[in-house]
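Friendly challenge for the regulars: who can give me the C-alpha cells for this chain first? No prize, just bragging rights.
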Amino acid sequence: MNQRIQIVGQGIAGSMLAWQCEREGVDFRVVDRGHATSASRVGAGLVSPLTGKRLVPTWRFSDWRDEVLAIYRELESELNVPLVREMRIRRYFRDQTQRELFEKRREKPEVARWVESFDYEGLWLHGALQVETGTLIAALRERWLVTGQLVEGSFEATTEGPVIWCLGANAMPIDGIPWQPSRGELITGELPRLAEDVILNDGKWLLPIPGGRVRVGSTFDRKNLEVRCTEEGIRELTEAAARLAGRPIAHVRGDAGLRVTVPDHRPVAGWTDDSHSIGVFAGLAAKGALWAPALARQWVADGLAGTELEPEVTVTRFD
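First reply, four minutes later:
Bragging rights claimed.
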C-alpha cells in the first residue's frame, strides 16, 4: 500500500498495528488524544490459557502464545524496557459446579497442555504471560512523538490516506457493529513475600509486581461508564486481595478504565469497505495483550489487504 495509513488511537491495538507498519516499512501516522479512559492505560496485560467462570480455553492462546512472546521479547530489546513475564497461575475453583465443568474438559488437548496439576481446591496452570502494556504504549508514544509519526489531538478527516480506527471504548464513527462498552477497576498496593511468578485467581486475580507490590482486579460494570474508582469496587478488590493472599493489602490505590467488546467476544478487525479506505481494529477487551500483536502482524503481512486476517474477527461477520 503506497498511501500513508492513518491510525486513530494508540492503545494496545493502535500501538501494535503502528509498530508492525514501522517494522514492514509501511508509511503510517498515529493520531491520539490521550489515554484518560483507555483500558490499556490501567490494564494488567494478563494472558491466560483458560479464562472465565467456565474455564474455557482462551481463543487462539495455543496458536499465538509463543508468537506474541517472541514479539514482546523483540520489543523489550528494541525499546530497552522490561515488558513481559512468563507466569504460573493458581486458579481456585469457585464452587462445585466450576470443578465439575473443569473435570469434563480437562482431557481436551487445548486444556491439558497447560495444566500442571489439579486438586480439590483448584488447578495449577503454566504458560501464562503478563505484559506491561502501559509501559509499552508509553515507550512507543515517546519514540513516535520524536519522529513526528504520532500527533496528539483529535483526528480530522483528510484525503491523506486510509483510516483505521483503534479507539477501543471511545465512540467510533462506524455503523453496524454491536459494541458493548464496560468499566473495570483494579487496585495497586503493598503485599510483600509473594512468589513473583505466580498469579492467584478465584474469579478475581492477584498479580505480584516487583518491590513487594501487587495489582488486584477486576470489576466489571456495563451500566456505570464513568471513569472513576468507586468505594464499592475498592472494597471488593481489597477483600479479594486478603482472601487470595491470606493477609491484608496495604496502601491501596485504585484506578479505572473503559474497555469494549462485542457479543461473540472476538476482536473486530479489517476494512469496512471494498476500497480499503476505512478500517477498524478494536474489541480486544481484556485479551488485547494476546490478540493485538498477532492480528496486527497478520494485517500488515499481506500489505494491509486484510486477506490474511482470521475470518472470526473480520467486520463482515456483522453484515
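Residues 61-79 form the longest helix (19 residues). DSSP finds eight helices and 17 strands in the chain. Your move, everyone else.
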